[in-house]
Amino acid sequence: MAESKTPLLDELETGKWPSFVKEMKQAAEKNPMARDLLDQLELSYKDKIGHWKHGGIVGVKGYGSGVIGRYSDRPDLFPNVQAFHTLRVNHPTGWFYKTDALRNLCDVWDKHGSGLTNMHGSTGDAILLGTRTEHLQSCFDDLSDAGFDLGGSGSALRTPSACVGPGRCEWACIDSLDVCYNITMSYQDKIHRPMFPYKFKIKVAACSNDCVASIARSDLSIIGTWKGDIQIDQNEVLAYAPTIDIQKEVCDLCPTRCMEWNGKELKIYNEDCNRCMHCINLMPKALRPGKEKGATILIGGKAPILQGALLSWVIVPFMKLEPPYTELKDLIERIQDWWDENAKSRERLGELIKRLGMRVFLRAVGLPAVPQMVKAPRTNPYVFFWPEEIKKEVK
Amino acid sequence: MPQIELAGKTYEVDEDGFLQELDKWNEEFAQAYAHTEDIDGTLTEEHWKIINYLRNYFQQFGIAPMVRKVCKDNGIDMKKLYELFPTGPAKGACKLAGLSKPTGCV
Questions:
Q1: Cβ(A205)–Cβ(A223) below 8 Å
Q2: Where would I find the H helices in A241-386?
Q3: How close, in Å, is residue B28 to chain A by CA atoms?
Q4: What is the largest CA-CA distance in chain A?
Q5: Predicted complex ipTM
Q6: What is the CATH topology of the domain spanning B3-96?
Q7: Domain ranges in chain B?
Q8: What is the pLDDT of residues A322-346, one digit of tens each?
Q9: Do A57 and B105 touch (CB under 8 A)?
Q10: Which residues from chain B sit within 8 angstroms of residue A189, using beta carbons?
Q11: Residues B10-69: pLDDT tens digits?
């Protein structure tokens, strides 16, 4: 048997977890790009550095985003990955596919690219990994014929994504799938043609379990919630009593301690509930979100570069979300206009708000300041006043 | 580095076709190169306005201007910008204007 060209990678074919090396080897049987990719990766394992060149600007006609250009820094050794561009394909919301859609996607990609994919990229797109510049336009044309469009990249609105929501979750407080799809279709121009100071991401979670991690990974997080009382089915609570220690595991772990359990009846003081989902998560048959549903809108989430990582924070405690989502879209547009006008190059929304202050932001987008926006009031006394507020006081 | 020949002269460019020796830029370069960015025929006055604006800004500040600034300062919108440069302001316009390649999380 011939000696393996990829001894380091071969190690990763052992073990229980599905092996990406196996997948790549399968693809390599059909496609020389996948073969060269394996070999270049082996070299990277050996050298402990990446072998891709810096940057790459390629695209398709009419769009400024959606394709990430990539070139090998060893085209002499791996000519088939000299150019190895990535196409981001906008995924169906909630990642629900029928097999014919996936077959179409595979047919297009077998024809134009390496056959390798990433299902899916962290933002949500179906990622087609590796093709040449001359294939980009024809690949895009075939994708369009198959009903797919590209997603976002660069300083644009990135592909919005959502949790499976009411598709198959009883806790969904909003139709996260519809909100996400509606936003995607409304802002096609902003996705395809980068016009912002930097990237902007929107994610929609239908309840505060936040199964798309919107609070951490989007500039604008839409998280479903409710007003009013949690719906309780006392008989179902009783049915849980033999299997879980309701006092210890539910009541004592409630962050606001707003629950009482006397062995027969569960009581919730809803005015103190912060809708953390814990009790509902533990007793899904007995407890349900309240009937008046909507979403909390949060803003500013981002990774560390430049000024430190941020989780999104509340700007609208409760908003009703029903098609055509006029209130939400008005707010999004006011926010983006203000950001676009005021941000420095490559300044995320969260950083701009940190720089100019919440009071400037809130005034610009027309939102009232409410206590839910802060965890605690400021501890220092360096308070600014608007000039007109001072005049009022003096009079 | 790949080389390309345009209007009888040779230029060094990178894989994406961006000019490497920025001081070699001239109007013939832009014109002869335009068809690769899906611009048919002669560059119009509107094209030149954007190209010259980009060059001036780059010379003055050492970076390409933000898209909003390009639109504002030239009194056009994004749609018009893509009509003029179908491959977009970064890949199309900056390349013809002989600016260095846009970088970052593209």
A1: yes
A2: 278-282, 326-342, 349-356, 358-365
A3: 23
A4: 94
A5: 0.91
A6: Arc Repressor Mutant, subunit A (1.10.10)
A7: 3-96
A8: 999 999 999 999 999 999 999 999 9
A9: no
A10: 78
A11: 999 999 999 999 999 999 999 999 999 999 999 999 999 999 999 999 999 999 999 999
